[in-house]
Amino acid sequence: MAGSFGRYITMRVLNSIIVIIAVLMITLILFGPMVDEQLRKQIMDEIKKQVIKGGKFGQYKSAEEVQKVIQEKYELRIKSLGLDKPWYYRIWGDLTRTLKLDLGRSWFLKSDSGSRRVVDIILERIPRTVVLFGTSTILILVLQLLLGARAAAKPGTLFDRMIVVAGLLGYAFATWWVGMVLLYLFAYLIPLFPTGGMTSIPPPSDPLGYALDVMWHLTLPVLAILLVALGGGAYVTRNLMIGIMTEDYILTSRAKGVPERRIIYYHALKMAAPPILTGVTLAIAGIFSGGLLTEIVFNWPGMGLLYWDALNSLDIPVIMGNVYFTTVLIVLANLVADILYGVVDPRVRLGAGVRR
Amino acid sequence: MRLRETLSDFWNEFKTKKVGLVGVLLLTLTVVVAVMAPVIAPMDLKRWKDPTYWENNPKSVPPVWVPYLFGKTPVPQIVISDFDVKARKLGGFPLIVATKEFNYTYDDFPNQVRIYFNLSHGGAGAFLQVTLYRPDGQSVTIFTDTIYPSTGNETYGGWFEKNVDCNREKKVRIAVATWLQKNGLNVTADDVIVPVALFSDMKSLKQGNPKTLKGVYKIEFKSATQGKKLELERLEFLMSATAYGLLGTDDVGRDLFKGLVWGTPIALMIGVLTSVISVVVGLFYGVTSGYIGGFTDEVMMRVVDILMAMPKLPILLMLAIVYKPTVFTIVFLLAIFGWMGISRVSRSMALQLRELAFVEAARSIGASRWRIIGVHIVPNIVPYTVAALALGIPDAILTEASLSFLGLGDPSLPTWGSILHDAEQGGALGSGMWWWFIPPGLAIAIVSMAFVFIGYAIDEIVNPRLRRR
N or C: lower Cβ tally within 10 Å for chain B? Predict the structure, then answer.
């Protein structure tokens, strides 16, 4: 019944599209008036410059006349851009423009290559954020499976209890603050790691040296994210595994004489995989937001630091663009997890209609 | 008395959960701090962000107990205000001379030196001069100023008030640099450190390793006028401490202990309010959706799906930029993104409950849909939401802290997140000011832990399915 799997995927994709459009609408509704205001000011300045500098000597008889000419030209421009009507008349145009990645120009910030186009500024930063976020997510996923399964193998032991406590503590600490403490301890107090950035200045020229340099800079931020998020993940895995270990077929396998290791790491973990993936789906947005703030602490030049920079100069177009791309990234990550979930869980694949 | 029995059973079981008891302990601690805040840390809460409120405090100094760890005695906050004031006439014109001797015996230099005066000159203007006489016989004229006759009305222009930060004031820097140059030191007004220069032994200063000159100093304030009246309303000479308060100060001199204490009630309020609103909204939304079922349920749950997939932080960030939030708007914004999880759980429970006999009985005697939801279903779900309520609190506290860390919190109040924002911007890490960024983060963690632990323990009791060993 591939049809129902197709339906499942269609629903997920549809959901993602609705989320992206909804966030875009919110962005436009919130910032539309501010952006229009700035645009009007810019046009006025431009026209004033044009009229005053470009005018021939004696062309205008009085200051009032100059003012009138400026006003006329201004109104003409405003009308041609549709700025004379409130922002919601243009929302459709703005929406389609944003979807086509035409995000306009920034007010203050520039990309590293010197471009003022918002798309350029953000596109430059996405890979850096993906490196940080991707590394941490993959590490969390792998380690949480191993740690959680190990804890579930012998519940009640010291190791197991440590996982439970670590899971609870993860809910109580802010990733970015843990980052601050790590940075203080291992970069300032004991200078083992760099105090910030993604590469040394200047970066090493050979590819291997560059990769090692990035990894060296990556260590502390990834560690901060791991310390906070890993406990929770391992805890969820452990709970699921303990539930599964009481199932009859595990007992059957034991009776058959399947080695305990194989039962835990193969039979049980396979069953636990789909709900774990759900857990990851839910955690992704959290890890991502935590990562964004951690970037600020570690001066990691990704999207999170871009929020900080844009907020400090109140560069609204950059903030709008950044929100848009953040949303797309989170939604995409969720979608991938959803599809994987469908692939590993036969109930979803075969359309038994489970609702999560 | 079923309720009472249930509660006492609950408590008996709760007592066996170590984690839960730790949570209760931590919660008690934070509540005590929150309630006692006006007593432990009295201050004008509205002026937390006002630098003039803190200007007499030493800047960027560690807690008082820190120097003792290194076997040093910190310089305390020294305020000299009981001057011997002598008023005389000089050629018919009033002249004031105020002097005071003090003993400086510390190994460290003061963090800053300030002169505060309020001089009433009747509008005729005045001349004033502040001199420091040192134990080695040298004297430094730190500050001279001319107050011009006021042209405005008497009541406004009749007095002159100033608080001079000696290390910032250009005049003082020039005067001190000139004095040092006369003593054969090669310094300019740009690189002189006034508190060090004034209190250092000249020989050691020349060697580039300044040590304090201990002994009796005398500070003298002189003022003369060409008018008829001259009165000194207030005069203070302040040498500020090298360590301050229980948790030190930040770069504008704010007492961080006060900030930490006052952050407690604010964080608790934000967390509890947000979580209560979220739980109530989520409970009713979920129950309604589950009980009505069908197409309504489908639509209502789709809304939840979509809201859950929304990136919380970026949207909150935009809302905070546009609506310059107060604490209460932040609570409202956080609650918007807090209720979906509970609504899902309550929906699935309502789905089960509506098939049960007592609900059917209620329906058969003609109870309305809303009565069934309100009287029969919701009360049965409430116990299960208590854990969610407790677990929602740390989430709200952490999210608010993140917003404040980005500089988007309530701009007037001392929240932990805003202290951490200032620490990040003020380079606390680079300058090693751990007292600025460690305590607020720990406080966030402790309050959050209290609720996480309690929520976990309740969850284990109420949802026996989760119980293991």
Answer: N
Question: Are B88 and B161 contained in the same domain?
Answer: yes
DSSP one-letter string for B125-186: -EEEEEEEE-TTS-EEEEEEEEEPPP-S-HHHHTEEEEEEETTT-HHHHHHHHHHHHHTT--
Q: Determine, yes or no, domain membership for B57.
A: no
| Regions in chain B scoring below 50 on pLDDT | 153-154, 466-469
- Pick the closest to residue B288 from B366, B355, B354 (CA basis): B354
**CATH number, position B150:** 2.60.120
Mark whether B202 and B262 lie in a shared domain.
Answer: no
Q: Is residue B58 part of a domain?
A: no
Name chain B contacts of A27, Cβ cutoff 8 Å.
318
The pTM score is 0.84
Interchain contact B406–A (C-beta under 8 A): yes
- Which of the listed residues B239, B270, B303 is the one where a domain comes to its end? B239
CB atoms within 10 A of CB B442: 15
Work out the burial of residue B89: count CB atoms within 10 Å of its CB; fewer than 13 is exposed, 13-18 middle, 19 or more buried.
exposed
**Distance of CA A52 to CAs A43, A47, A56, Å?**
14, 8, 9
Spatial separation of the C-alpha atoms in residues B401 and B409, rounded to whole Å:
8
Cβ within 8 Å of residue B321, ≥6 positions away: A30, A311, A314, A316, A319, B408
Rounded Cα–Cα distance for residues B246 and B239 (Å): 19
Asked if residue B183 and residue B313 are part of one domain, the reply reads: no
Alpha-carbon distance B333 to nearest alpha carbon in chain A (angstroms): 14
Residues B85, B230 within the same domain: yes
Contact flag B312-A19 (C-beta cutoff 8 Å): no
Is B444 close to A239, i.e. CB distance below 8 A? no
**Is B218 found in the same domain as B105?**
yes
pLDDT in tens, B29-71: 999 999 999 998 888 888 888 888 888 888 888 898 888 888 8
Residues of A in contact with B302 (CB under 8 A): 15
**Cα A79-A83-A84 angle, rounded to 5 deg:** 65
Look up residue A143 and give its amino acid.
L
pLDDT one-digit tens code per residue, A55-111: 666 677 777 877 888 888 888 888 877 777 777 777 787 788 888 888 888 888 888
Q: Residue B469 is nearest to which of A156, A184, A292, comparing CB atoms?
A: A156
Confidence of residue A355 (pLDDT cuts 50, 70, 90): very low
Which residues on A lie below 8 Å from B309 (Cβ)? 15-16, 19, 285, 330-331, 334
Structural domain total, chain B? 2
- What is the value of ipTM here, to two decimals? 0.84
Q: Whole-angstrom Cα distance, residue A24 to residue A18?
A: 10
